Amino acid sequence: MDTATFNDIGAVVQADRAHVWHHLTQHKPFETIDPRVVVEGKGLWVWDATGKKTLDAVSGGVWTVNVGYGRESIANAVRDQLLKMNYFAGAAGTVPGAIFARKLIEKMPGLSRVYYSNSGSEANEKAYKMVRQIAHRRHGGKKWKILYRERDYHGTTIAALASGGQDERKALYGPFPDGFVAVPHCLEYRSQWGEVADYGLRAANAIEEVILREGPDTVGAIILEPVTAGGGVITPPEGYWPRVQEICKKYGLLLIIDEVVCGVGRTGTWFGYQHYGIKPDIVTMAKGVASGYAAISCTVTTEEVFEAFKDDSDPLGYFRDISTFGGCTSGPAAALENMRIIEDENLLENTTRMGERLMANLRALQEKHAVIGDVRGKGLFCGAELVANRETREPLPEKTVAKVVAATMARGVQIGMTNRSLPGLNNTLCMSPALIVTADQIDQITDAIDGALTEVCG
Ligand code: PLP
User: Is the dihedral of CA 213, 246, 306, 155 positive or negative?
Assistant: First the structure.
């Protein structure tokens, strides 16, 4: 590595400004200001090129770095594995690939097979391809449609976007492939049916209405986030999941659970779906699997789904899919060490305890600041929806919400907000600190938000 060049931070920033196209970012401001370049992380702390130190309350911006920055043991595990065997195409097995799959399956009773790829989008694409191939092979080409929920997000590729329920992410990228059909969201605070006695049941029944409208023989699967992330941190209402499970059974739908955000500890259990007694057919995961130390995603299935791809009487009777970098061994090597850390440091327990503290602090802020309309969350995964008017629930304008985020950052804490999700509804502050967060750090996060709300909203 050319250390001298790496250490010339001024040159690094200028190289970035001149040549890097940043994700999800409007670049016009960089004509006059420098982009942010991060240079170092330790625990929850991040240092940027200007020397500013920030407490990261969003685990790398997008709820990813679950075990915190600067983990030497993960770096060592990856290094050792890379020197031994860095890569082989996934038609062959590898040592960390096999051992991590076994360990993962131990945490997921009812599931048995792990398919490796690189990103959340890709993991979901694999799930869709499984559904489609099953439709062709088992249902004569019928049951090919896949339902998704308004406000959920499943990735950035064209098919994953087609199954996304966030209009601002989809805008200007159509036309999309056929066969992805929306069902209503389940955020009671923004109820589509006014005040109903049993909102959870109502929202789940809305799925059945869509199935009946489309024709049950055309619908093969539904994909859902256990707790919706970027769409506004939406925890499922009481009664929702049992009814969803019933509906899937009744109409023969495969249930795909997208654990890209919730997976591997974020909500205080290994997987978000495990809070709700759900029995999925396919589970996808990515971000927290290796906490961003290496790229890895997994599409995990039941043995029944796997068996559908074992027909050797047909040359096309297996899962004809590959992900070149799904054969990188750095991913499962990092994931194994990541999981060991979560177990040995009791991070699921810490997540539950610190998540409760974060929620309690946010509820106290809600008492104090009328601008907080609703507080939601599970484990270390929380959102505070900001409103201009508590009675009417009129959303706070996005620009004002962005000012709150900036004012929190000025106080040394980075939080997030719903970003290009739904028109007029980019108004939820998001918090997802690493699972190692301490009580003092939780208080520091909410103190900064408190100060920011006072400054921006009065
Ligand atoms: N699913 C969910 C719930 C996500 O939040 C994301 C990304 O934010 C994805 C899928 C896509 O993951 P990736 O960006 O790794 O493709």
Answer: positive
Please report, for the domain that includes residue 329, its CATH number. Answer: 3.40.640.10
pLDDT of residue 342: 98
**Which residue is associated with the tokens 């070149």?**
324
Among 344, 379, 396, the domain boundary falls at: 344
Over the range 357-375, which residues count as b (16 or more CB within 10 Å of their CB) and which as e?
Answer: bbbebbeebbeebebbbbb
304 and 316 inside one domain: yes
Residues 149 and 271 in one domain: yes
Q: What is the largest CA-CA distance in the chain?
A: 71
> What's the domain range around 315?
73-344
- Show the ligand 1 pocket: residues with CB < 6 angstroms: 62, 119-121, 153-156, 225, 229-230, 258, 260-261, 286
pLDDT digits (tens, 9 = 90+) for 346-402: 999 999 999 999 999 999 999 999 999 999 999 999 999 999 999 999 999 999 999
Whether 15 maps to a domain, the answer reads no
Distance from Cα 390 to the centre of ligand 1, integer Å: 31
pLDDT at position 335 over 90: yes
Closest C-alpha residue for ligand 1 atom 1 = 154
pLDDT band at 5 (very low <50, low <70, confident <90, very high): confident
